[in-house]
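Look over this one:
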Amino acid sequence: MSKFTDFFKNNIKLILKITLISAIIIAITLVILFVIHKLNKNEYDNVYKNRTQRCLAVYNNYTIINQKPIPNGGKYFNQYFKKEHYYGLRDFYYASSYKSYLPCGYSNDVVSYNALSNVLFAGARAINLDIFYNGPYPFADESKIIVGNVINGKLAYLPKTNTDKQYLEFINCLQIIDDIAWKKTDAPLFLYLNLEFEPNQKLEYQIYSQLFLKLKQHFLDKYYSFQRVNIGDIPVNQSLNKIIILTNRKPICAFLNEITNGLMTSNSTNLILFEISDGDVDYGGVKIHFAKKEDALETTKFNLTAVIKKPKFSEKNFSNPKIDTFNYNTDDNFDLGVSMCFMNWQNYPDKDDHMKNYLLKFKEGGMILKPPTLIYEPRPKTPAIERNKTFDYNNRNVNGLGGFYNFNT
């Protein structure tokens, strides 16, 4: 022990030098690692920022739509009732935006509040938000509702993106809607919430509470709650300055269920959704769902209908933004009376002829009246005919025994 003490005393300066040099080397290493991390972080922050700005530039080419007033305040003379009636919501076309929060594309890309606000400024009257959760698992106390791009049940985003840039806060999206949606028009706004999580009362209550907090003044009358009414029947005067809340499935939370006005599904009686693929487009889009044109017109005249082209995910989107968001010709669908053809507003109209033609269709506003031939005109119910009892038979009691029947009056 004394030898060790003597060695330490004799070499204390050397030991201190070695310790100091080691500490300096460790400190320099940590600084280098921190700088590298910071540079990488700044690099990916810049990638996100530049990509977002480049993709959002598309909206600079969009004309801000000033909605023209609805003809005659939405009234028309009904020849069957012999008095004025209001058009129903099914009697209009609506400029509709698919995945309105994505500025660049579907596949592992950035999200943006500005994309949503620009779509509203450009005149869209139907928007789509995909609703997911942020947390360890759906039922966790800390899990919160968010807006984000979901692929195969998982949140998808630009690789190495910071957590706070992987999704949008739902309540902030609602604030944008409240600030912009009715700034230049009193036309109704359809909000399609695609619930990407399994039924969950906790998360659904968060959706309800945030909707109530930000948009309760724009809710439709309670008569139209619980998806009890065919949305196409709603008179246009009852929907001015209102938001119409749609979901892809019936909420299990009673509060959210109450304020949900309709389900947008293929078998819905509130708003019928037709999902089509690229192959379907080649054969006329919605036409393939009907045996003949008359059947399609009967459906679209009486119901509010929508079309969404199924997204095609592509990893090439990482190096070539928007490559997975090509639009399609909507003329056939509009000719059949479809009210909503959801489009990818991420695309430059001068590079996407279908988007250009779509915007030209809605140049007078995001809500336009259909041609008279595509409008359903309600008629009074046919009075019930009283049953003619002339040929009625008197009641008879029949009993049988041993193969023989007795008829007793």
Remarks:
- Residues 64-374 form a domain with the TIM Barrel fold (CATH 3.20.20.190).
